[in-house]
Each structure stands twice: as structure tokens, then as C-alpha cells.
Design a protein that fits this description.
about 475 residues; mainly beta; 15-stranded mixed β-sheet; 4-stranded antiparallel β-sheet; 34 strands
Length: about 475
């Protein structure tokens, strides 16, 4: 019996040893699209590549501590910001030579120089100033932390319009809850906090040890790294996409695929110098089955990495499709027209089209774009829920119609067309009302077409079935 039990136990152990690590996930995956409007799709612990360090992509790697829209328990962040910390330890520094105060310390000066040297002007503009006075910071003043059976008491660590800063002791303990979480990527390295330790008369600063525990070190300790944090202004982020970028075929609007929550991301930031860019939809065959949309634009910047980009968003506001023009390589392309082909089998519902002039850079580098030009792709439907001819009338509703649009209404009786009526929209983009139909039958179809070519502008809609 004992041998049999031992054999069973050994067999179980061998089976467990053969299981892949992924069979025991740390947490459930969250499915998201590979491109998302704004910063709302980012979640805690995502990686963002941000900065202009060209030699080493890890130097552009930042970790999300608090996403936009999250009510942080600490005032250093906020719902309109994305709190980041460098994924890597940057370089060994002394916190200061004489004082534990953050203001005017060597550490603060290092952060200011890093901000100057490692971001371009648009990225600098996206990094918000962070102010935290001592009154707001009192939540962790004199609060004891016990690590490795040692108690530390950290004082307040205010900030004043800092773009980059070190975390306080409480911020490190709150946003990075375990020793493993506090370790930077790539190496076991200790890094400075900005909180003074006040339980002794010595000049000691908060520090995260190489193993991740909170501890202290003297000001001049020569084996502690700078690991900066910052807040991104969420309003400056137009959209977020996979760090390796999404590259649709030229002049083709493609459906945005999904990914898990362990992906790394890059940002398309608003560039206000591009806001003279203008665009409008001049023609649409938005049949939702390989249809086309023609856009007239002007005042685009031109270069080998400049594009007219489009995002198609559904009724919930989520980006579902993305497309780019051919590169605008010469000055003559600052104005013109571009036609995009829509995906096959796109759902027949209302979509909003966002157009911008986008500078698309390499993988793991930020992109830059003008403010969105917004338009609604044409859609036609029957009004007030009516789905049949009633008293010889049908109700219609049109939104997003381009100029030169015409409504065609056809009445059916047992599958046979008994009347056709047309209505010129007279360049109205949106209109609703009733159409009078002669003939017989309760079935009908509504079409929205170009009145010159009679090309369909959107899918037709059916009233009561015409097959009976």
C-alpha cells in the first residue's frame, strides 16, 4: 500500500513538472484592440515606449502605475493623467551632498536634466507638471513602514511643478506592492525615493533595495540609481497602439485586431502645430462591403513619414478600423484628395470617421498628429421604429449625408415593386421626415445615393419583408 501511494505521488509530481508555466497564469487576460482612442485602454503595469533615446529601446520603456480614469488613493496622480515610472534603473547618482529636501537636490536637478535631454518638444508638452504641497502630502508624514523587521518613518516629500520626480515611500509601497514589483527590468538595482527618513538624527533618504524592500541610505551612498516617474496628460494622447505599430495597406481602412493585456504600447500625441489641417468627406460609397470613402484635405505636413490617417469608430466610441494614405512625400501633396477602401462585411450601423495628418515613426517611438477632423459616414434608416408603409407613407432618417445626396424609396407588394419616389436632400447632412408612396403593399426599401452617378452611399434598409 505504501509503495503504491508513493508511486502515485511520484507520478503526480512528474505530471506537474511537465505542465507549462502558462498553465498557471498570474491573472486573467484582458482582450483589447491593438489601437485604442486616447489613453483609456491602458491598464496598470502596461509598458509604454516614450522618449527619444535612439540607441537602446529599453531606455524608452516606461511602466504604467496608475492609468487615466482611475481615482488614485494618492494625490500624486489623477483621473486625467497616466502615472508612469521608468522600467529600468537609469544611472547611479548621489541624492544630495548636504540635505534630504527634494527641492534643489542633486536628485531633482538630475530629473530636470533628464527631462531636457531625453524628450522632444511634443513629448515634453505631454508630460504634466506635478505639484504636491506638504499639506496634501501629509497622508504619509511620519507613517512607519516595516520591512525585514526594521521600522522606517518617512517625512512628507512635496513636489512643485515637477515634470520628472522620484516616488515617495508611500507611492512606492502603494503602486508597487511587492518586493518583486519594485525591481526594475533587466537588473537587480537599488533606486532612490524622495522621502527623508526621520526616526534618527542621521541624514538618511528612502531607498528601494536591489531585492525590492524599502530601506534607507545616506545621502552620498554610491550604489543607488535614479529611477524617474512622471505624469502624462491624458488629453494629449490621441490614440494608443501596439509598440511595434500597426501598418495597414495603403489607402485601405482595416479592422483593428485584438490583443491581450500583456502587450507594450506607443502613443500618437497631439501636435498643435498641425491643427490647420482640414479634411472633409466629399464622396462615399460606404456600402460596408469594400465600399470607398473619398476625402479632400489641405494644410497637411509633408515628408516621407507623413500621412493622412483615418480612424473609424462605432456607436460606442471605440476605434474599430484604421487606415493610412500613401506617404505625403512632396510639398505638392500638402493638399489633395485620397480615397480609402473600407473593409469587407462591415456591420451596417452608424460610424464616425476621424481624419488627421499623422507623422508615423518607427516601432517603439511616439507618433504625432493634428487634432481629429470628425465626420459621420452616411447612414439611412426608417424613423420612429416604423418598419412598414403606413397610410401610404414611410418615415426616414438620414445622418452624415455628403453633398449631392438623394433618397430613393421603393414600395413593394408581395415582392413586386409598385412605386418609386425620390427626395433631393439639397446638401443637408441630416434630415428626417416622411415620404408619400403610391402603389400598394406594406414593404419598402430606402436607398441613399449620389444624385449624379446613383452610386450607393450606404447600405439600403428594408422595411417589412418583400418576399411575401
Amino acid at each position: 500500500m505504501k509503495k503504491r501511494a508513493l508511486s502515485a505521488l511520484l507520478a503526480l509530481c512528474m505530471a506537474l513538472a511537465l505542465l507549462p508555466w502558462a498553465a498557471v497564469p498570474a491573472r486573467a487576460a484582458v482582450t483589447r484592440r491593438q489601437l485604442m482612442l486616447g489613453a483609456s485602454g491602458l491598464i496598470k503595469d502596461n509598458i509604454i515606449y516614450f522618449g527619444n533615446e535612439h540607441d537602446n529601446e529599453y531606455q524608452r520603456s516606461w511602466r504604467v502605475l496608475s492609468p487615466a480614469g482611475v481615482n488614485s488613493t494618492l494625490p500624486v496622480s489623477g483621473t486625467d493623467r497616466v502615472l508612469l515610472i521608468s522600467s529600468v534603473a537609469r544611472e547611479v547618482i548621489n541624492f544630495d551632498n548636504a540635505s534630504t529636501a527634494w527641492a534643489d537636490s542633486n536628485a531633482q536637478k538630475w530629473c530636470k536634466k533628464f527631462y531636457t535631454d531625453n524628450f522632444n518638444d511634443l513629448e515634453k508638452a505631454a508630460i504634466a507638471e506635478t505639484t504636491l504641497d506638504e499639506q496634501n502630502d501629509k497622508t504619509y508624514q511620519n507613517k512607519p513602514y516595516c520591512y525585514d523587521y526594521k521600522y522606517f518613518h518617512f517625512a512628507a516629500a512635496p513636489l512643485s511643478a515637477d515634470r520628472l520626480f522620484f516616488l515617495s515611500a508611500e507611492e512606492a509601497a502603494t503602486y508597487l506592492k511587492t518586493n518583486a514589483a519594485r525591481q526594475p527590468s533587466g537588473a537587480s538595482a537599488g533606486w532612490w525615493l524622495r522621502s527623508p527618513e526621520i526616526s534618527t538624527d542621521s541624514l538618511l533618504m528612502g531607498r528601494v533595495e536591489g531585492g525590492g524592500a524599502l530601506a534607507t541610505a545616506s545621502l552620498g551612498y554610491d550604489n543607488t540609481y535614479a529611477r524617474p516617474a512622471c505624469n502624462l496628460d491624458a488629453a494629449s494622447i490621441l490614440f494608443t497602439q501596439l509598440a511595434d505599430g500597426i501598418t495597414p495597406a495603403v489607402n485601405t481602412v482595416e479592422k483593428i485586431q485584438t490583443t491581450s493585456d500583456y502587450s507594450a504600447w506607443k502613443l500618437t500625441l497631439h501636435d498643435s502645430s498641425r491643427d490647420s489641417f482640414w479634411a472633409e468627406v466629399t464622396a462615399s460609397n460606404a456600402s460596408r462591403s469594400g465600399g470607398t470613402v473619398t476625402i479632400r484635405y489641405k494644410n497637411a505636413k509633408t515628408d516621407s513619414n507623413e500621412y493622412v490617417s483615418v480612424l473609424l469608430c462605432d456607436e460606442t466610441g471605440a476605434a474599430v478600423c484604421y487606415g493610412v494614405s500613401a506617404p505625403l512625400t512632396n510639398a505638392g501633396q500638402s493638399s489633395g484628395t485620397v480615397t480609402f477602401t473600407l473593409p469587407e462585411n462591415l456591420d451596417t450601423k452608424r460610424y464616425t470617421l476621424y481624419v488627421c495628418n499623422e507623422q508615423r515613426n518607427g516601432a517603439k517611438f511616439s507618433n504625432y498628429a493634428s487634432a481629429f477632423q470628425e465626420t459621420t459616414l452616411p447612414v439611412i434608416g426608417f424613423g420612429s421604429g416604423d418598419s412598414s408603409v403606413q397610410n401610404n407613407t414611410v418615415r426616414y432618417s438620414v445622418q452624415g449625408a455628403p453633398k449631392n445626396a438623394l433618397i430613393i424609396a421603393a414600395r413593394y407588394d408581395g415582392g413586386k415593386m409598385t412605386d418609386v419616389q425620390t427626395l433631393d436632400l439639397a446638401d443637408d447632412e441630416a434630415r428626417e421626415g416622411t415620404l408619400t408612396l403610391r402603389g400598394t403593399g406594406t414593404g419598402f426599401k430606402l436607398f441613399l445615393v449620389d444624385k449624379t452617378t446613383y452610386a450607393p452611399l450606404c447600405p439600403a434598409v428594408d422595411g417589412m419583408s418583400t418576399s411575401s
